[in-house]
Amino acid sequence: MKEQNMHDARPAGKEIAYVTGGASGIGYATARRLAVAGFRVAILDLGEDRVQAAAGELSALGLDAQGYVADVRDREALAGIMDGEGRVDVVVCAAGVYTPRQFDEISDEDFRRTVDVNLLGVFVPAQEGARRMRPGGRIVTVSSRGALGGYGFADYVASKAGVIGLTRAMALELRPRRIAVNSIAPGFTDTPMTRTMPPDQYAKAVALEPGGAPATPDDIAVAIEFFASPATKFITGQTLFVDGGKSLGGLGI
Ligand code: NAP
Q1: Can you spell out the DSSP letters for the chain?
Q2: Comparison of pLDDT for 250 and 142, the residue scoring more
Q3: Mutate which of 18, 71, 97, 113 to test ligand 1's pocket (most atoms within 8 Å of Cβ)?
Q4: Domain Ketoreductase: where (predicted)?
Q5: What are the tens digits of pLDDT across the range 201-242?
Q6: Given this model, what pLDDT does residue 153 score?
Q7: Confidence band (pLDDT; 50, 70, 90) for 89?
Q8: 95 within ligand 1 shell (Cβ under 6 A)
Q9: Which of 48, 97, 214, 215 has CB 3.0 to 4.6 Å from 219, enough for a Cys bridge?
Q10: Measured in angstroms, how far is the CA atom of residue 213 from the centroid of ligand 1?
Q11: Closest protein CA for atom 31 of ligand 1
Q12: Is the CATH code 3.40.47.10 the one for domain 14-243?
């Protein structure tokens, strides 16, 4: 009963969802889904043109979206955006970087940059969001099936395994405040990120998919929307693999 009352402490009115990496790929599909579901959506990404185009596309559909250019590691910028919007109900941490490189070729600088964006870049918006959330708030991080391992992207694997650990730690510490924190681990998905792969590598990755095709961004966004929903308030600290069965073993690599 007490828990129900705490959830009722959420202020009335439209909930606001912040989506990092929201101007591209999985983040954009998520922003669109959440806006259709009735959220006001704040799209946070790099590149003024891309951000305004993404927000403009949603606004043209009659949806409530606002674009902001912000680096996910820029705490001051994120805090200013959240304070300007006035409330935080959901934070989706979808921004990320990926560069295929063999283990032996990864420099310290490469490693630092990947971990900086993919892990610190989850920690900062999640922490700023949690500080402003009322009971009932939700944080959704985006890890990767790659957190289980894979060839040619050890820095990325490490960063995405870190996201799962961070998600579990945040979930436990934020549970007394009734803030749910969960993660989605997408499998191979057709987005601008994976389209940077050389075509032969892209084809090889597709061939390893049990279903013979990559996910669409919306295949992933539907799962993010689930964790962003207020109905999932008793689910926390979980990682949902949305990978068409790839993590089940079968084909192996
Ligand atoms: P995407 O289309 O490249 O979208 C990622 C967005 O994040 C891009 O707009 C990117 O901007 C932005 N971003 C990068 N660094 C940023 C920073 N420091 N601050 C703010 N924004 C930044 O890639 P996606 O495939 O949709 O990926 C979304 C998430 O899913 C990522 O976390 C990715 O690791 C994860 N994921 C993807 C796949 C897949 O197969 N696609 C699989 C598993 C997990 P720039 O383009 O300028 O870098």
Answers
A1: -HHHHHHTTSPSS--EEEEETTTSHHHHHHHHHHHHTT-EEEEEES-HHHHHHHHHHHHHTT--EEEEE--TT-HHHHHHHHHHH---SEEEE---------GGG--HHHHHHHHIIIIIHHHHHHHHHHHHPPTT-EEEEE--GGGG--SS-HHHHHHHHHHHHHHHHHHHHHGGGT-EEEEEEE-SB-STTGGGS-HHHHHHHHHTSTTSSPBPHHHHHHHHHHHHSGGGTT--S-EEEESTTGGG-TT--
A2: 142
A3: 97
A4: 19-187
A5: 899 999 989 999 999 999 999 999 999 999 888 999 999 999
A6: 94
A7: very high
A8: yes
A9: 215
A10: 20
A11: 96
A12: no
Residue 251, pLDDT score: 52
pLDDT at residue 2, as a whole number: 38
Enumerate the domain spans of the chain: 14-243
**116 CA → ligand 1 middle, Å:** 13
pLDDT score, position 249: 79
Q: How far is the CA of 55 from the centre of ligand 1 (A)?
A: 17
Q: Is any atom of ligand 1 closer than 6 Å to the C-beta of 142? A: yes
